[in-house]
Protein 1
Amino acid sequence: MRPPTVEIILRVGTALTFAGHGAFAFDRKPGWAAYLETAGFSHDVALSVMPLIGCLDWLVALVVLVWPLRPVVLWAVIWAIATAAIRPISGEPVWEMIERGANWACPWALWFTLRRRQRD
């Protein structure tokens, strides 16, 4: 049975978000080291961890797109909220977090969609 259209849209949206962010992390996007430094990493460690984070983001994107496991989708929600929240914590305006609401709202809506489908 084919998943409903809304679920497909949420899966694609979540996967694209994580694929794009994974690419930026893998390429060590300038400025992102500061977010990891706010979390307690040294600059050098932050730069070395970023490609690992990028690979994890790509894995999340692939799983969500191909076989959306609810624990992975829940991780996507938590990670997206954390990465949005680190911006004002690191000194950027709160609007930087608000602007990224879709990054966590999309996987959160997907999680609820999958939960409802499992119960039905």
Protein 2
Amino acid sequence: MSRSMPDKKLERLLPSDVAADDTLYVVNRELKLVYANEEWMRFATGNKGERLLAKDWNPNVLDNMSGQSKERWTHIYRMLLEGRLPHHQEELICSSPSERRLYRLRITPKRDDAGDVAWLVHHTVRVDKGKDVVHRVSERLGELDDPERVNREYGDSITARRLKIPSFRTARHFQPLKSIGGDLIWHREYPEAVADLVHADVAGHGEIAGRLATKIVVLLDELAAAGNGPAAVISGLNRALLEVSPSESKLFATGLFFRFEPGGQRLICSSMGHEGPIFSRTGEVKIENGPPVGLLEESRTWPENIIDLAEHGTRFLVFSDGITEQFNIEGEMFGAARLLQAFRSRLDQPLDDMVRGIVDEAVRFRGAALIKDDQTLLALELVD
């Protein structure tokens, strides 16, 4: 039997697209459970949720969590309740004694008559039954075993892709060591001025690295289409790379994943074992790191860090180690300190001029020494 909300008028808040085997539940501002449908009750019974089924109704949903998981969800719920997130969506892996299942969770804030967020509606649908999606992605990835196709895809999907982030100006220097390489820049825009940006650097360079970089773009296009949060997209990407790229099994990728929210003042950033970013006011911002993708099993996590541009500065740089680990003929490395100095000395210049000036300075530093890696320098500036 379903648990009901105390006030029946709240039932109008429930989404209309709930299928028979979806789970649905609602929590109030105190994160206490005030409604759950029958499917949720069955799910809880089969997934060690006895504490949430106790006679004492209205349990707090955080009571069944601990450690980093509890800390992470506390942060997500706080942002939703304060109106700093319009919604939250991610994929979850839930295991029963008999099978491993993948679900997509959508959390939608609902407001009361005063305009305050009063409830959080949780709608969970099972998504590992989408064989058509798996087949389509597998076909796309299979096409990338053809070197000529990789060259075309790398050019179309990475080199030539126009970068547009709402509320931001962008400029970039993108130079593969060969015709294609392991560096990539990917982005996607969503409704309500939300956008994602990924810069990644595949270990190595040349055709093999370029093939994996192009596969990463294909996978990001598919994973991000569901509107998942950064941590969920990275988790899905990591899982997919371990499963679908045996020919590049010795390769992995580092990178940064940015979620841009309306207004642009706050960024969500997840690091996949990558340096940076470097900001105009505070320099390199130390963020909680996760591992590279394609290297370790699915149990790893990628923390979502909140970066406030009012604190750190409205211009910032994202870069590959081909920039900072460039050596001159004396064996000196250009390094992050020189990059920061070159950045700050040009903050009064237009963004494109600034990027060209930084690259020119790195070239002068290198002198007659060889370039040994792909080079990417991406600059972003919040527009007033």
Protein 3
Amino acid sequence: MSNYIFRVSKEGYDVSTIDKTNLILTDEYPFLKIYIQGSFSLNITGNGTFTQTITHNFGYHVAYLHLHVFDPNYTDRRYLGCFTASGPTGLIQTDSYTTINTVVMGWRDLSSGFFRSYPYMIYIYYYLFYDELV
């Protein structure tokens, strides 16, 4: 263990006397280390599940995060992780999971077109971390 402490405080706060709730970063608590980040798009052509697989080969389930844009009318919005919407004629939702060497991210449309007319695009932005998902 090091005798040094890494701290970054919010503007206007003295980092040497600050309460931990006003810190932006500190090495006193673990935080995620990014392995890779990227993006991809999925062309949704009809009912079904559409996925993209990201391979990491670490041999364990990595922590990951993904955001997506699924409505071209609202590109200023990013939806984090999990999204589901259902209606009288079906369901749309994100679909993601991890294995010990991959992360699979995607979109499921079982709506028969109530959400958008086919085809439409889903844009996914992701981060994979070195940290193990426990």
Protein 4
Amino acid sequence: MPLDPQAKAILDATPVMPDFDTIDLATARAGMEAGDALSPGDPIPVARVSDQSIAGPDGEIPLRIYWPDGQGPFPVVVFFHGGGFVFCGLDSHDGQARSLCKGAGCVVVSVDYRLAPEHPFPAAPEDCYAATRWVADHARELEVDASRMAVAGDSAGGNLAAVVALMARDRGGPELRFQLLVYPVTDHNFDTISYRDNAEGYLLSTSSMKWFWRQYIAKPADRENPYASPLRAGDLSRLPPGLCITAEYDPLRDEGEAYAEKLRAAGVAVTTSRYDGVFHGFFGMGVMLDRANDAVAEACKALRNALGT
């Protein structure tokens, strides 16, 4: 379908994404970390927010923890931000974490994992798995119920959510109830219809994705590793059910939907929900984009149903 009118207005007002090979990485990161530039407005209120750090596999991992109104123990969502494994952090995705906390009635633990290229694969998934394990081990002090735990993320964070689900299965826990995958990166492969049809003009470009993968993968053999490209996993059975949200005008659309289909073929109850007329990144644009609010509402309803809130 044509671009949603609100989505078109956002694209018309947004500068073209730069060629990352030609700009300073620190400068680019500063722009990304400035916050939700495409989602202005007051922060969504939640009951309480706390920043802290935990011991990770190679240094401290910063976390930001959000509590909803009400009395615990609460279900918990461990959230991994997008940004191509290179950009973004706790501030850039504060709005999304707050939306899930308030809308799903869950504690949300947002993880500031190590970024590439300084820390290439497998640093990010190892940090995210360690944080998920820590949440389960510290459930009482966090006022959460570790038997009602989900993972979630957008884009690169969607990749990490899928990968942490694989790691939790392969490494004996923690047990996860649900995985929320928002336009996830699932494969080091650019030969899809959505990559060709949406190569330029919709915020995320095919050339940018190739650049992100070059930063993230230092060893070519790791492109095949299912903890980097979960679509290449030989066994997707015994994974938690989930929801995979995709966008029509997104290079990542087809690989996200292919991953959901492969999960279903393995007996995992996963729903795919494609949002027509919008592009990569729309999920965090609720102030300006009605379809974003629809997607967040769908995600929160799915979390509530899965986690019993």
